[in-house]
Specification:
The protein contains 18 helices and four strands. With 611 residues, the protein is mainly α. It has four domains: 35-219, no CATH class; 220-268 and 279-383, no CATH class; 389-542, no CATH class; 543-610, no CATH class. The strands form two sheets. A two-stranded antiparallel sheet has the order 1-2. A hairpin with a 2-residue loop joins β1 (86-87) and β2 (90-91). α5 (93-129) packs antiparallel against α6 (137-157). Its main location: membrane. Pfam families: COX1. Residues 593-603 have a biased composition (Polar residues). Residues 29-573 form the Cytochrome oxidase subunit I profile domain. This is Cytochrome C oxidase.
C-alpha cells in the first residue's frame, strides 16, 4: 500500500470516527432498534424477517406435501385454518398451486436472498474490513424498509379472498398475465408483482452499499488480496444482483402493463373460455428470457454468500489455512461471469434452435469446473486438519456434501438431450433443492451458529445444535434422493394429484414416505428456533473470540456499539488464514498482529510494510 493510500485511509476513517463520536448521545428505542442506521442492527432485522418467512415457507411446503403424499386422505383439521380453501377435507386445487407459488417465491427471494445476504453482508462487511459502518447508513436503513414493505404486501396477499398469486414462482405468462385466467391470477398476482418490484429496489440499494463499502472503506493495510473469502463472496454477490435484478424489474413492469394497460409484450392469439382476446404480437418466451437472465444468476446470488461463510468456518475449525486462497477467489469470479451466460439451459424445451441449445449446454457444463475447484479446496482444507466439530462446522461439512450431491445431478440436467426427458419431473425438484435450497440453508445455519456470539454476545447450545443438525441432515437426503428416482421414472412436478395415472400409483408409498420425512424436517427446525431465541436471553455469555479466529470482527468488544471499535480502527498486516503456522506459539494469528511480533513464524517475504 502506498503512502498516498495510507494517508487517504487515515483521512476517510478519521471522518468516520468523528461522525460516530457525534452519535454517542442516548438514542430512543425507535432510533436505535427500529429505524437504526447501525449495520449490525439492520443485519438482525433482516435475520428476524428471514426467520419469519422461513416459517411461512416451510408451513406452505408441509401443506402441499401432505396433499402429494396422501392424495386420497381428508384433512378436516385444516378447515378452521384455511377456510374455503379446504372443501370436505380436500385441498382446493387452485390453492395448491398458490401454495407452490408462494413457497418458491418466499424461499428463493425472501429467505435465501434477503434473509441470507441481508443478514451476513450487512453484519460482516464493515466488521471484517475494519470500517465503522456501511458507506451509507441511511441507504442501508432504506434497503431494509423497502424489503419490509415488500414483505407486508406479499403477506397480505395470502389473505385475499381470491387467494395469493398462483402462476408458479416463475410467474410465466400467459397464466400470470391474464387476471381472468384463474383466481390466483387476479389481485394476488398484482400484489406479487408490486411486492417483487419493492424487493428488487431493496436489493439494489443494499448491493450499491455493499460494493461501495468494500471498495472504499477497507482499513489501513487491508488490500483485496488480504480480504476474507466471506467478503469476496458478498462483494461478488452484490455485483451479480446489481447487474441481474434490473432485468427482472423490467419483466415485472412489462407484465403489469400487459395485465392492466392492454399491451401485448408477452401475449399473442389468446383464447379464454372460448373468447378470443385482442392481444397480438407478443411472446411468452420473451418473459422466460428476461426471468431466467435474472433467475440463473439468482441461483448464485443465493449460494455465493454461503461459499464464503463455509470457507471461513472450515478454515477456522480445521485450524488450517484455507487451501488455494487465490484459486477460491478465481473460481468465484469464474462462477459469477459464467452465471450470466447459461440462463437458457432452463429453456431447452421452449423450442429453441438445437445448435443454440448446444452452446448453452457447453457453457453450463463448463461452470462445473470452478465449482469443482471450490469442492476440492474445501476437502483439501479438511484433510488432516485438527477439526473442531462445532455445530457450525457440521453444517459446513454437510454443505459440501449437499453441494457435491446436487451438483452431480446438475451435470445431468445440463445435458440438453437428458434435460428434455427429465424436464418438469421430480428429478429437477430434487436437484435444485439439494444444490441450492438445502445447501444454502445449511450455509445459513452454519453462519448463524458461528457468528451468533458476535451478534448477541451469547453462545447457542451445542447439544441442541447437534440434534437440529442430525435430524435435518438425514431428512434432506431422505426427502430428495427418492425424488431423483421417481423423477427418472417420469413423475411430474406441479401436479395436484396423480392418482389417475396407473404408472404413478406405483410410487404411492414413496411419496407418502417423502411427505412424512418432510414434515419431520420442518418440525426439527423448532429445535433451532428454541435454541436461537432462548440463547439470545439466557445463553452462556460469549468471550471476545470464542472460536480463536483471525478475522477483524473478533477484535471488537463482545457487544460492539455503533462504530464497532471504541478506539482507533485496527491495522491489517496479514491475510486472514494464518492458522497452525509453524513456529507460532498459538495455532492462530489475528490479522491485526504485526509481523514484528511473530518473528519465530515469519516467512522470508513477511514483514511490516508500515509502522
Amino acid at each position: 500500500m502506498s503512502t498516498t493510500d495510507i494517508s487517504l485511509h487515515k483521512d476517510v476513517h478519521a471522518g468516520h470516527d468523528d461522525h460516530h463520536d457525534d452519535h454517542d448521545h442516548d438514542q430512543s428505542f425507535i432510533e436505535k432498534y427500529i429505524f437504526s442506521q447501525d449495520h449490525k442492527v439492520i443485519a438482525k432485522q433482516f435475520l428476524f424477517a428471514g426467520i419469519f418467512w422461513a416459517i411461512i415457507g416451510g408451513t406452505f411446503s408441509s401443506l402441499f406435501r401432505m396433499q402429494l403424499g396422501f392424495p386420497e386422505a381428508t384433512f378436516t383439521f385444516l378447515e378452521p385454518l384455511l377456510g374455503k380453501w379446504v372443501d370436505g377435507g380436500k385441498l382446493n386445487p387452485e390453492f395448491y398451486l398458490a401454495l407452490v407459488t408462494m413457497h418458491g417465491t418466499i424461499m428463493v427471494f425472501f429467505v435465501l436472498t434477503a434473509g441470507l445476504s441481508g443478514t451476513f453482508s450487512n453484519f460482516l462487511i464493515p466488521l471484517q474490513i475494519g470500517a465503522r459502518d456501511m458507506a451509507s447508513g441511511f441507504m442501508n436503513m432504506l434497503s431494509f424498509w423497502f424489503f419490509f414493505l415488500a414483505s407486508v404486501i406479499m403477506f397480505y396477499s395470502i389473505f385475499l379472498e381470491t387467494g395469493p398469486a398462483a402462476g408458479g414462482w416463475t410467474v410465466y405468462p400467459p397464466l400470470s398475465a391474464l387476471p381472468q385466467a384463474i383466481a390466483g391470477s387476479g389481485a394476488g398476482m398484482t400484489m406479487w408483482l408490486v411486492s417483487m418490484a419493492l424487493f428488487i429496489v431493496s436489493q439494489l440499494l443494499g448491493g450499491v452499499n455493499y460494493i461501495t463499502t468494500v471498495i472504499n472503506m477497507r482499513t489501513r493495510g487491508l488490500s483485496m488480496t488480504k480480504l476474507p473469502l466471506t467478503i469476496w463472496a458478498f462483494f461478488l454477490t452484490a455485483v451479480l444482483g446489481l447487474l441481474a435484478f434490473p432485468v427482472l424489474f423490467s419483466a415485472a413492469l412489462l407484465l403489469i402493463f400487459d395485465r392492466s394497460f392492454g399491451t401485448s409484450f408477452f401475449l399473442s392469439d389468446i383464447y379464454v373460455a372460448g373468447e378470443a382476446l385482442t392481444h397480438t404480437g407478443g411472446s411468452p418466451v420473451l418473459f422466460q428470457h428476461l426471468f431466467w437472465f435474472l433467475g440463473h444468476p439468482e441461483v448464485y446470488i443465493v449460494i455465493l454468500p454461503t461459499f464464503g461463510i463455509v470457507s471461513e468456518i472450515i478454515a477456522t475449525n480445521s485450524r488450517k489455512p484455507i487451501f488455494g486462497y487465490r484459486a477460491m477467489i478465481g473460481s468465484m469470479l469464474g462462477i459469477a461471469l459464467l452465471s450470466f451466460i447459461v440462463w437458457a439451459h432452463h429453456m431447452f424445451v421452449s423450442g429453441m434452435n438445437p445448435f443454440l441449445g448446444s452452446v448453452f449446454m457447453f457453457l453450463t457444463l463448463i461452470i462445473a469446473v470452478p465449482s469443482a475447484v471450490k469442492v476440492f479446496n474445501w476437502i483439501a482444507t479438511l484433510w488432516r486438519g485438527n477439526i473442531n466439530f462445532t455445530t457450525a462446522m457440521l453444517f459446513s461439512v454437510a454443505f459440501v456434501s449437499l453441494f457435491i450431491s446436487g451438483g452431480v445431478t446438475g451435470i445431468i440436467l445440463g445435458n440438453s438431450a437428458l434435460d428434455i426427458q427429465l424436464h418438469d419431473t421430480y428429478f429437477v425438484v430434487a436437484h435444485f433443492h439439494l444444490v441450492m435450497g438445502s445447501a444454502a440453508f445449511f450455509g445459513m445455519f452454519a453462519g448463524v451458529y458461528h457468528w451468533f456470539p458476535k451478534m448477541f454476545g451469547r453462545m447457542m447450545d451445542e447439544k441442541l445444535g447437534y440434534i437440529h443438525f442430525w435430524i435435518t441432515f438425514a431428512s434432506v437426503y431422505l426427502i430428495f434422493m427418492p425424488m431423483h428416482y421417481i423423477g427418472i421414472a417420469g413423475f411430474p412436478r406441479r401436479y395436484y394429484t396423480w392418482t389417475g395415472f396407473d404408472v404413478f400409483n406405483k410410487f404411492m408409498d414413496m411419496n407418502s414416505f417423502i411427505t412424512i420425512v418432510a414434515v419431520l424436517a420442518f418440525a426439527a427446525q423448532f429445535f433451532f428456533l428454541f435454541n436461537f431465541f432462548y440463547s439470545i436471553f439466557r445463553g452462556r455469555r460469549a468471550t471476545e473470540n470464542p472460536w480463536k479466529s483471525n478475522t477483524l470482527e473478533w477484535t471488537t468488544p463482545v457487544n460492539p456499539g455503533h462504530g464497532n471499535w471504541p478506539g482507533p480502527l485496527p491495522v491489517v498486516y496479514r491475510w486472514p488464514y494464518d492458522y497452525s503456522k509453524p513456529g507460532a506459539p498459538q495455532d492462530f494469528i489475528p490479522q491485526n498482529v504485526p509481523f514484528s511480533q511473530t518473528q519465530s513464524s515469519n516467512l522470508p517475504h513477511e514483514r511490516d510494510d508500515f509502522e
